[in-house]
Amino acid sequence: MILIAGIADESPTSLVVDALEAIGAHYRLFDQRRVASAEIALEVGDASGGGAIGGTLTLDDETIPLEAISGMFVRLMDDQLLPGIAEAAPRDARRIHCRRFHELLLRFADIAPGRVLNRPDAMASNQSKPFQAQVIRTAGFDIPHTLITNSPSAAREFIEQAWADRIGVIYKSVSGVRSIVQRVALEDVKRLDRIRWCPTQFQHYVTGTDIRVHVVGETVVAVTIVSDATDYRYAARETGREPTIAATELDADVRARCIGLARRLNLPLAGIDLRRSCEGRYVCFEVNPSPAFSFYEQRAGVPVASCIARYLAGEAD
Amino acid sequence: MIVILCHADDEPALWLDRTLRELRVGGIALVAVEQLVFSRHIVHRLTSTGDSGVIEIAGGSVLRPEAITGLVNRVRYVPTAHFAMAGAVDRAYATAELSAFLLAWLNGIAGRVINPPLPAALGGTTFATPTVAHLAAMAGLPTLVWRASTTHNRPDTVGAAPTHAAIVLDGRVFGPILPRSLQDGCRRLATLLGTPLIQVLLHHSRENGWRFVGVPADVDFRAGGRPLARAVARALGADAAP
């Protein structure tokens, strides 16, 4: 049995459910909004049993042995922000139950013996972009020339040198906190003193074609994105035009590097952001461990959800 | 340069620093996490070929990741006293940014880092209890059943107090003399956790025999004594006096 955990009508989750239905896979859905009617008991066996994982998951009136779960798709929103929980008092029984349920479900996902997209422990790499960049580098991709600093003079020197070389500079968050990538403008240089209180990340802007790669196990699905915006996710807001997204094929070497990168991060499901530079270099920006693949699937018709369903069902490596 | 990076109240790390100096290990720098995080001059560069940079710390010392040949990583948390006046949202954002930077800085050290930082644990050794219970059982250590559920407030575990503490560094066991099977189990657990340095807590009693208790986040170097301090020096590429 495959367990889907998330918000039932969120696009990536509902696409995976549809894909599982299409192949006739046996699955159950844990909708976070129904956490009040869910229970979990997790058990780790003793040494004589080799630490076997056991327990039960109860969803509404059905109780499922955890041993029966052979695959998991984990796309959980912050459980403290769920409707009915967000407004509850800190010691409210609903909040305590909700937190405890999610904590145990996540710990189960970490050690469950089946296929898990993705294990919570591994997803933490997304909390540091430069840490990911270091791993990306070992996987054979270029990374943008980057400066992280709380020194206004070092930042100014980096920016002015890049501009002298006719290279643009962007700034973005160091952590996984979602931020809109912004180009450094002349007026930004005047307020560099503000970076003194916290190191800030600056990067050379890489010109080229954006490529979003989804790795699912050994399968690679790629699309190109054409947009005038600095951050194509916000193209409509920035330029008034939606990005153009189309399916593409990658060279075998690049495909292999993407699979290798996902493997290094222990992420059988990964959304990899590449840019093919004008000189043909592949520069990698980051790897999303919980990719919103529906954005690309719905615009380019690429079959990410069905790849996920087949992987979870054991029909694809 | 070998750096011992720890918090000011980290007694085992301070003991290691003193002991390495007594063993005439050269080039040791004791750096408080607070010194690093509160630095007024942090510059860190990443390119496709490697990391470089400068952090100026109080007292005039300079840390360069490319010049650090070994680092003992004892980071338990990111100090954020300097964000105290910021609003809650800004403080949370700045803490996440600083934590993300510190992870990459530790990971970008040219020399060996013990323990290497993990995205979920800057100090490299914080593991969830069921994960440790599962892997300890797989390693052949004498674990009991671990249970927890939404209907019981506390995990159903035997709360035996530790009577013995074994330390594993690079597959070698330090501390009290233990039965061979336990030593082998401790080594296997370190391998399964993917961590070069761990402390394994055990309980022994006449009626129950040996029981696995847990793996604490911080190793108490004092439990391994001078042999462990020498091994740490060797692991970081330094020589210690015999």
Description:
The complex is a heterodimer of chains A (317) and B (242). With 317 residues, chain A is α+β, with helices and mostly antiparallel strands. Chain A has helices at residues 11-22, 93-111, 120-123, 129-138, 152-164, 186-189, 235-239, 252-264, 294-300, 304-312; strands spanning 2-6, 27-31, 38-44, 53-59, 62-65, 71-75, 115-117, 146-149, 169-172, 182-183, 200-204, 208-216, 219-226, 244-248, 269-277, 282-288. In chain A, the strands form four sheets. Chain A has a five-stranded antiparallel sheet with strand order 14-13-12-15-16, sandwiched between helices. Chain A has a four-stranded parallel sheet with strand order 2-1-6-7, covered by helices on one side. Chain A has a four-stranded antiparallel sheet with strand order 8-11-9-10, with helices on one face. The radius of gyration of chain A is 22 Å and the shape is globular. In chain A, strand 4 (53-59) and strand 5 (62-65) form a beta hairpin. Chain B contains six helices and twelve strands. Chain B has helices at 11-22, 33-37, 88-107, 129-138, 180-193, 225-235; strands spanning 2-6, 28-32, 41-47, 50-56, 62-63, 70-73, 112-114, 146-149, 164-169, 172-174, 197-205, 209-214. Chain B is globular. The chains are: A alpha+beta (317), B alpha/beta (242). At the A-B interface, strand 3, helix 2, helix 4 and strand 8 of A face strand 3, helix 3, helix 4 and strand 8 of B. Strand 3 of chain A pairs antiparallel with strand 8 of chain B.
